[in-house]
Protein: Aspartate aminotransferase family protein
Amino acid sequence: MHSNVRLDGPDVFLKRADGARLRSVDDVDYVDHLLGQGPALFGHAPEFLTSAVDQASRDALIFGGQGEREVYAAELVCSVLDWPDMVRFGLTGTEVVQAALRLARAVTGRTRVIRFEGHYHGWLDNVLVAERDGAWQAASSGQLESHLEDFRVLPWNDAELLGEVIEREGEQIAAVIMEPIMINSGVIEPAPGYLERVRRMCSRHGIVLIFDEVISGFRVGPGGAARRYGVTPDLAVYGKALGGGYPVSALVGREDLMSRIGIGDVNHAGTFNAWAPGMAAVIAALEHVRDDPPYPSIIAHGTKLMDGIREIGESFGEPLRVEGMPMAFHVSFGDAEVTDYRSLQELDLQRYASLASVLVEHGIWVARRGIWFVSEAHGPAELDDALTRFKTGFKDWLGR
Ligand code: PMP
Structure:
């Protein structure tokens, strides 16, 4: 097991990921609704992506200098997103989050960062937290608690509370960082007007607003959450779907901020940054997003799947909550009104986790934390298989 996020996975080894399906070494077929934790927006290994990367790999694996594809890849990122001026490519979401935080601290000359309960920003010492005894603390043994000192963790979707903290401490706050749609814990959209209010407060106090769109970017639409809600951050980070399954990430932003990186005074480095085949992946993925958007089919499929899961729950008299968007939704049991991490905890998340384990046994590859993703490769056969398997899995799990 090479990622702790996979620790809750089953004891299955996989050998193929093709379209919307996975195949295990024992030749068990799975309909995949985890999609590599998000990247496989177009399904696994689509021909348009693998052939572009194969060609680029024959041209060059690595230059140790500027490659020709990275210029066009950067232009595409800016034009598809439609607001940033500049891009800096990395490999993972974790590292571009760090670049964004460093840049925000450099441009403001301040150190404090506000972040939110239940939002994930990578596994490094200054951002990895878990709630223990009502406080957000280091989540891992060996993690330096001191690295968390300048971070304040607030409930999300509460503009009043954020406003109070900013009024009090605004002079010390370098950045507010958030998942603009909370996808890592449940799938919770921002309350109407929330992002606009956060935007206004940050502007008024000279605070850098960072959107972590590592999951939402290119998944919820070509412009991610920023365009969906019409709120533009100062900096944003992307990963996952940006490379469609190849490891690529990006920090993007306005020129007055971004120009401090690289040729400016803010250091950001990486042997594999703007990795040549990865740039071909970005180009292929974003040209596809621009010219042949996958969203209509994903939305149609996801909507039927969400409805189908709800109907199965109702048919057994065990209502399932199916919430979020057709491109990324959350399945759980419970009655609470969910607006943030705390209200999410009032649901019976463990009950769903135990169901998810049975669904995997029945051939649906899903995470125990309740999140489901849909890709462009999911078609009628996958819908049929997923719902049939869900029904038998649910029946089995209920013991009926
Ligand atoms: N930010 C968010 C919102 C994420 O969902 C993730 C990964 N799940 C990361 C950052 C970290 O990205 P990576 O795993 O590529 O380092």
About this structure: Residues 37, 92-94, 97, 120-122, 179, 184, 212, 214-215, 239 surround 4'-deoxy-4'-aminopyridoxal-5'-phosphate (CB under 6 Å).
